[in-house]
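Q&A log
Question type: sequence-to-structure
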Amino acid sequence: MISSRAAMKSTRSLSDERGRKIHDKHSPHRSGRPPGNCNRFPGPYYLDSGGDEDNLEVVGLNNFVHVRCHFSSPKACPCGRYACHLDSMIVAVDGACPGNGSDLAVRSACGVYFGPEDDDGGPRNMALRVPDEPGMLHTSQRAELWAAIAALWASDKYAESGGQWPCEVPEGCKTPCRISHLVIKSDSAYLVNSMTGAIKKWKTNGWLTTKKTPVANRDLWELLLKRVAYLDKLGVTVDWWLVPRKENEEADDLANAGLQRKPLALRDILS
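Response status: OK
Response body:
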């Protein structure tokens, strides 16, 4: 029996085949802004065009992580890379809160992973300690939200002036090469499921849940939406990718490292 995905691949149109031939070679290129906003990644626009759920991340020339082109070859080129969208970025986030849900939860932190560090202006990953705030408890959920807020805030400059890809490669790339697609990668179902579904209902219902109780962490959800709205004005689609925890180890390590840092006034910095 042929799977639906196999059948889809076997019936690609001629125009799709031409696209695949163009991108079979290692050819980083712009893809443009995907449709919609705050959708799950990889979405139908990606999978229905021939993309699959393997090898979605490609480390680029500046060590940022990019979305693999959905028309790319199933095999990497001799350099080890797949064709990718140079106007995209995948940013991993995570939170840490020892003793979460108990009286021992007296500190928390967040981690933001852009890619492998280097000495030539490559990714500047973030390990941030969450400050104490009056009336607010330290929880894993709040730490995860702070991580996402920090990731969006730090991505602003790549939407405004580029820098995630060396603009002299490929030839003809106009400077600056700004991002148009940002994927936030997380192992938090709370974060991803809420941003791709529940949050729309919460807003419509006056920030009440289906049980008519106030939405927890509303202050951070509103700040997160503010950051998404700013990127939207800059022409950036923000999608959300839920992954197993074992596939988010870099962000997890950064979050744990943040527990050893001095607290920062995140609300003042990231608002």
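Response note: The chain has a mean pLDDT of 85.
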